[in-house]
């Protein structure tokens, strides 16, 4: 497939569905990657209003759209409309990538793989380590399942609503033979030494960047590495506190970036050469101060 500077009759169309999607970086990642690899494809954001998902998918299929990303609030809602789901999407119960198949779209979850790749990029190990997950929503589910798949020593899930942490811990245990504890965010076990703490809640996201789910600075003295899935701001209060305490810190840009790379690979059935990955990662990081 050859890249051309303008869209022509052979251009393959990809897109993103979600609501709202104005601030997405995905079109920049995919369109730049297509240009670098000389692929004749275009990636377009589609803001799908509430209640419009089924029609949007039917329409997309009829319009010969080759693949899509799915973002908030449709990652779970999209599943009944797919022909099948693959890999981590089954355990997570959420899909962020669709690839056109013979009888409809096939769903994947590349968020999980994106997080894993971001941890690898930052030389953060999971195997044999104590992992803490803050939150128990959709993003936490991806983080919990993917870390559970990498042989950790144990996983401790803490959430504002303890019952949801319990639910997620049961879900993890039903898929992986890994010790999983759970607790409330505000009465967590203070003896748990944390090799890796993954913050998955929306607390700290702009404009609420003066907030953190953890307010006790002493907490971070027990933590080695802290990852926040938020990348806007690039350094949340949670990460600021972690850094001050000497932790290794990683924001959510890597996860976003690598989930996109993985989606691109699934769509095109290729492996993106590391040289292009590094070049694009650095360019975006610098351009958006991430
Ligand atoms: P996502 O798919 O982005 O993970 P979600 O499924 O709505 O979003 O989950 C949001 C998570 O952020 C939950 O763990 C939620 O805690 P509750 O289960 O108690 O609702 C957490 N969260 C949201 N606002 C919070 C706040 N102000 N303090 C602590 N946790 C919060």
Please, could you describe this protein's structure?
There is one protein chain. By secondary structure, the protein is an alpha/beta fold. It contains nine helices and twelve strands. A six-stranded mixed beta sheet has the order 2-1-3-5-6-4, sandwiched between helices. The longest helix has 16 residues, at 253-268. The relative contact order is 0.13. The model has no long low-confidence stretch (mean pLDDT 96). The chain binds 2'-monophosphoadenosine-5'-diphosphate (ATR).
Summarize the structure.
Helix content is 35%, strand content 21%. The chain has helices spanning 26-36, 53-62, 88-92, 110-121, 138-148, 162-175, 237-244, 253-268, 274-287; strands at 12-18, 41-47, 67-70, 84-85, 97-101, 104-108, 130-134, 154-159, 180-184, 194-199, 223-228, 248-250.
What's the CATH C level of the largest domain?
Alpha Beta
Helix content: 25-40%
Secondary structure tally: strands:
12
CATH topology of the largest domain: Rossmann fold
């Amino acid at each position: 497939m050859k890249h051309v500077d303008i869209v022509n009759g052979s251009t393959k169309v990809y897109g993103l569905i979600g609501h709202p999607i104005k601030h997405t970086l995905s079109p920049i990642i995919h369109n730049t990657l297509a240009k670098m690899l000389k692929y004749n494809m275009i990636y377009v954001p589609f803001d799908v209003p509430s209640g419009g998902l089924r029609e949007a998918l039917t329409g997309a299929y009829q319009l010969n759209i080759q693949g899509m990303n799915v973002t908030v609030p449709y990652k779970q809602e999209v599943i009944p409309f797919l022909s099948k789901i693959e890999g981590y999407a089954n355990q997570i119960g959420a899909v962020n990538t669709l690839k056109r198949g013979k009888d409809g779209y096939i769903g994947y979850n590349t968020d999980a793989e994106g997080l894993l790749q971001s941890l690898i990029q930052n030389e953060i190990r999971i195997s044999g380590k104590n992992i803490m997950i803050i939150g128990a929503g959709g993003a936490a589910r991806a983080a919990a399942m993917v870390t559970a798949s990498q042989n950790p020593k144990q996983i401790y899930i803490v959430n504002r609503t303890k019952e949801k942490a319990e639910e997620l811990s049961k879900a993890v245990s039903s898929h992986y033979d890994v010790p999983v504890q759970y607790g409330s965010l505000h009465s967590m076990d203070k003896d748990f030494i944390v090799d890796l703490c993954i913050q998955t809640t929306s607390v700290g996201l702009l404009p609420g960047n003066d907030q953190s789910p953890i307010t006790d600075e002493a907490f971070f003295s027990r933590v080695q590495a802290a990852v926040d899935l938020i990348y806007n701001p690039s350094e949340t209060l949670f990460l600021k506190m972690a850094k001050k305490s000497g932790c290794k810190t990683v924001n959510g840009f890597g996860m976003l970036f690598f989930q996109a790379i993985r989606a691109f690979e699934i769509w095109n059935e290729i492996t993106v050469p590391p040289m292009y990955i590094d070049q694009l990662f650095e360019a975006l990081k610098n351009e958006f101060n991430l």
